[in-house]
Amino acid sequence: MATNTRKSSARQARPEFTCTECGWRTAKWVGRCGECQQWGTVVEAAASSGPRTTAVAPGKVVALPITEVEADATTAGPTGVSEFDRVLGGGLVAGAVVLLAGEPGIGKSTLLLDVAGHYGREDRTVLYVTAEESAAQVRMRAERIGAMNPGVLLVSETDLGAVLGHIEQASPGLLIVDSVQTIASSEVDGLAGGVSQVKEVASAIIAAAKARGLPVLLVGHVTKDGTLAGPRTLEHLVDVVCQFEGDRHTPLRLVRAVKNRYGATDEVGCFELTDGGISSLVDPSKLFLSRDAGTVAGTCVTVTLEGKRPLTTEIQALVTDAVASNPRRTTSGIDSPRVAMILAVLERHVRQGMNRSADVYVSTVGGARANEPACDLAIALALMSSARDRPLRRSLVAFGEVGLSGDLRPVAGLQRRLTEAYRLGFNRAIVPAGSADQVSVPMNVIEADTLAQAENLAIS
User: Fold this and answer.
1) Is 267 a known ligand-binding residue?
2) Most exposed among 71, 87, 357, 428, judged by the fewest C-beta atoms under 10 Å?
3) Residue 103 annotated as binding?
4) Is 102 known to sit in a ligand binding site?
5) Looking at residue 10, what is its pLDDT?
6) Is 108 annotated as a binding residue?
7) pTM
8) For the residues of 298-315, what is the DSSP string, one character each?
9) pLDDT tens digits for 198-234?
10) Residues 240, 261: contact at Cβ < 8 Å?
C-alpha cells in the first residue's frame, strides 16, 4: 500500500512542459513546439493535481436575465474615415481594442494618424503613443497628410508604466499605440517584443481600456510569412484584428477584419496611398480596368468578391511562341497552379495547343488579386483570345469555375457581381448554365455549359 502511495505522489509531482506561444503541453522537454513549430518556447511548468481557484462570493456585478442587459455599450462611433468604419462595423466601440497588422512600410502608421486627425476634430482628445519614431517625425508626417489637429496629443515613449501614466493624465477619448511590440515593462524580464513582454503590455493596455471605456488602436508587426508576430494569445486578447494588405508598387491598400467581436469579418476597406497621405476609395473598381479593356486580344473582365464587396478585375493574357525548350509560365496576381490547371483543360477539351509549345503570361491590372474559382472562365477566355489573336466581344464579363472535364460550375454571389458590372457599363455576361434564373439585372446574360461553348459565345 505504501509503495502505491509513493508512486501516486510521484506522478502528481511530475513536472510538465508548456509552450509559451500556443499553450501546447508535453511530458518531456523538447526544443521545438509540436503544435506551433516555434523553437525555444517550451518551458517547465509545475503540474497541478487539480484546480487551485475556489468559489468566492460575487462582487458588485450581478447576473441578470439576458433580456435586461443594456446593449448601448456596443454602439459604434464613427472615426471619420469611412472605409475604416466599414471594416470595423460602423466605427469604434467604447473599450474596444483593435489590432492592426501589416508589413513594414505598408501604411499602417499613416492610416492611424489620419484616423487620429479626423477623430480629434469632433472635440475629442486622441493620445498617440509612438514607440518607433520620434515625435518630430510623426509631426512631419501629420503635416504632409493634413492631420495637424490640436486635439491629437503626441508622445514618444517605450516604457509601459509611462504610457499608463499618460493615459491617467490625459484621459483621452482614443488611444493609438505604435507599436505594441516596441513597448516594454520594467517589471517583466525580457526584451521588448518577447513573449512575456508582449503579453504584459497588451494585458495592461486592455485592462486600462476596459476600465475606462477607452477605444484603443494597436499596431502589430508581422513575420516573414505574413502572420502576426508575437504570441498567438495576443490575437485572442484583443477584440478586433485587422490585416493591412497591398503591393508596394501600387497605390491600392486593403484592410480586412480577420476577427471582429462587434461586426462581420467579410467587409473590406479600400484605400489609396499617395505622397499626400491615404484616402478612402468608395469606388475602387476603376483602378483595375485599363482603357483598352475588352477591345484588344487577350483581355477579359470579371468581378471578384472581397468579402461582400465586388471589385471589377481585368485579366490579361499573352500567349506567344516559346523561345526555349521549356515553355515559360509567369503569373502576377493569379495563382500559378490554377493557370496550369486551366491550360491542361484547354489542351484536353478545347484543343488549344498552347500547353506544350507556347510561353504563357497571365496578369491582373492594377495589382488586383484574382484567386477565387469564379475567375477561371475569365482566365480561360483571355488565354484563348490571345492564342487566336481575336478580341472578345465588347462590354463582356465572364464568371464561372472551370472543372477538369471542361464544364462550367456556378459561382457564389452572382447577383452582386452582375450588379457591379452593369453599374460600370457592361451589358453582356457569360455565366455557367443554370445560373441566369437566380439574377435580375438588365443585362444580356448568356449561359454556357462548357468552355468550348463559352469560347464560341465570347470571341467575336
Assistant:
1) no
2) 71
3) yes
4) yes
5) 45
6) yes
7) 0.77
8) TEEEEEEEETTEEEEEEE
9) 889 999 999 999 999 999 999 988 766 666 666 667 8
10) yes
